[in-house]
Design a protein that fits this description.
The strands form two sheets. The protein has a five-stranded antiparallel sheet. The chain has one domain (6-127): Chemotaxis protein chec. The N and C termini lie far apart (40 Å). With 130 residues, the chain is of the alpha+beta class. It is built from five helices and seven strands; from the N terminus they run βαββααββαββα. 40% of the residues lie in helices and 22% in strands.
Length: 130
């Protein structure tokens, strides 16, 4: 990440974001980079809980309040808003990882901690799938 908060998106993913993207703060402490279509699918899941319930309202707030529209510049870079950079502790080197539904931008220390947790539980979690 440069000093202005721009992150180059790997070339193999850029075509997915040619129509824009949405950025959200993950509960896991990274920034999620969604295609517009993927974001809409996630919105559908979030809104399955009725807005008449406290849980439904909080899900909507948690998802929408921490979301930003974004675009790639001509060099294939994404400008991460200051709020997201601060919350995810992004500055200098970052890790960009694919998560099937979206890309994630991680602080390297947080990524290392997350991957240690993944490694500790992955086998059991994979075996529990049916």
């Amino acid at each position: 990440m440069d000093d202005r908060g721009r992150v180059p998106i790997p070339a193999r993913y850029r075509h997915l974001f040619s129509e824009g993207m949405k950025l959200t703060l993950s509960p896991d402490g990274c920034v999620e980079v969604w295609t517009n279509e993927g974001f809409e699918r996630m919105e559908e899941k979030v809104t399955l809980e009725p807005a008449t319930t406290l849980k439904g309202r909080r899900l909507r707030r948690g998802f929408s309040v921490r979301s930003w529209d974004a675009e790639l510049d001509r060099q294939g870079r994404l400008l991460v808003p200051q709020y997201l950079r601060e919350k995810a502790e992004l500055d200098g080197n970052v890790i960009i990882a694919g998560r099937i539904e979206c890309l994630e931008i991680w602080n390297p220390k947080r990524w290392e901690e997350e991957m240690a947790q993944v490694e500790a539980t992955y086998r059991e979690e994979l075996e529990s799938l049916r």
